[in-house]
Amino acid sequence: MIKDTKFNYALNVIARWFVGLVFLFSSFVKGVDPMGTTFKIQEYMTAWSIGSFTFEWAQPFAGVLSVGLICLEFLVGVLLITNSYRRLSAWLLALMMLFFTVTTLIDALTNKVTDCGCFGDAVKLTNWQTFWKNVVLDVPTVWIFLTQKLRYKRLFERDGIIFLSALAVMLVFALYNIKHEPVIDFRPWKVGNQMMDLDADQQPKSYLTYRNTATGETMEFESAKLMEYMEDPQWAEQWEWEASRVESPYDIKAPGFSMIDLDGEDRAADLIPAEDGLIIVTIHHLADVKEKSVRDIRFALRQAEDSDTRIVLLTSALPEEIQAWLHDNDIEGLDYLFADATAIETMMRGNPGFMYVKDAVVVDKGRRLNDLNIEI
Asked: Would the pTM of this model clear 0.85, i.e. be above it?
């Protein structure tokens, strides 16, 4: 039994605020983009299995689970900070942290899912970093659970109002961001971002990764500066080459992004710098495109044909599928390119999405053509 002292209660307050703020931050950055959390849950359902039992059958429920997780995380954070429903919040926190810790430990050991999405796209952590983050949170979680009865006055009316208000606020916020693009965009294709460096004076840079044979430490060196280190015979004996990469100033500043044509050529570096503007229509699931969106695509194509603006369709569908879809929907003359579904979902959550790029800068984007604040 934990003694009811000022010191123990002060530790309880500090622990509740520390964990509560982390939960509020985590739920907020996921709440601005519930679709991203949905995709992450679907990734878990695809990657994980227990023997021959898989979870792919549950993918249609990923959206509901996403909103539920976000609301629950936000609710626990609010309850902890406001000292409301202390027993309920302590039990919910303990169960959630147990689930998170076990899940991230399995992730770290198997690497089946390389990013848990704990902080959405706002903060990226490796699987081991995520696991140790949860271990750190487990310490105050245990203290909160053990001291849940210290100096607690039951204020059911006040606690009930806080409970319902927190749940309603995050539910409305999450549903709004499902209906629209995220109100705060943490992704590479954020409005205003320049997706390529168009400075012609810059040259490609090559980097080499070396591993220290004694400590296992790895370091990346720019090849132009590596010779300074290699002149030291002792350095050369301790470090061995492991990998290399080339960074071109004309690379798209979005990992894994490409715009592949029917000949297998990546057209991204040619299209993104468009001086006269480029409308990119993204579709990651053909079957889910509604008729009003089809009308938007037809209208955008007609508008582009009457101006110097170019329009292309970027999809993850197979060539024969997109050709049949364009024919069935009477959309003739629309150039189409291919990209990985994850890369397209990173660009736009909407299906379809409309993005306007000019001089390699994301000028605007939205789920309907009318959402774009541009003149074609």
From this structure: no
14: Cβ contacts below 8 Å, ≥ 6 apart:
140
pLDDT, tens digit, 9 for 90 and up, residues 18-44 = 999 999 999 999 999 999 899 899 888
Residue 285 has pLDDT above 80, yes or no: yes
Q: Read off the tokens for 318.
A: 């197979």
CA distance 134 to 93: 12
CB of 362 within 8 A of CB of 355? yes
Question: Which residue is listed with tokens 């629950």?
Answer: 72
Supply the pLDDT for residue 200. 55
Tokens of 145: 């659970």
Start-to-end CA distance of the chain, whole Å, equals 71
For residue 366, which amino acid is it? G
Mean pLDDT for the stretch of residues 292-298: 91
| Amino acid letter, 367 | R
- Report the candidate in 94, 93, 86 with the shortest Cα–Cα distance to residue 153: 86
Sort strands 49-50 and 53-54 into parallel, antiparallel or unpaired. Answer: antiparallel
Write the single-letter amino acid at 118. Answer: C
- Residue-wise pLDDT for 196-218, tens only, equals 887 655 666 677 788 888 777 78
Cα–Cα distances (Å) from 243 to 171, 206, 221, 308, 355, in that order, read 46, 11, 11, 44, 36
pLDDT tens digit sequence for 49-84 = 777 788 888 888 999 999 999 999 999 999 999 999
Q: Are 184 and 30 in contact (CB under 8 A)?
A: no
Q: What is the spatial distance between Cα 140 and Cα 264, in angstroms, rounded to a whole number?
A: 53
Q: What confidence score (pLDDT) does residue 68 get?
A: 96
Contacts 24+ apart (CB under 8 A), 176-185: 177/31, 177/32, 177/33, 177/34, 177/35, 178/34, 178/35, 178/63, 178/67, 180/366, 180/367, 181/348, 181/349, 181/350, 181/353, 181/365, 181/366, 181/367, 182/32, 182/33, 182/36, 182/349, 183/32, 184/32
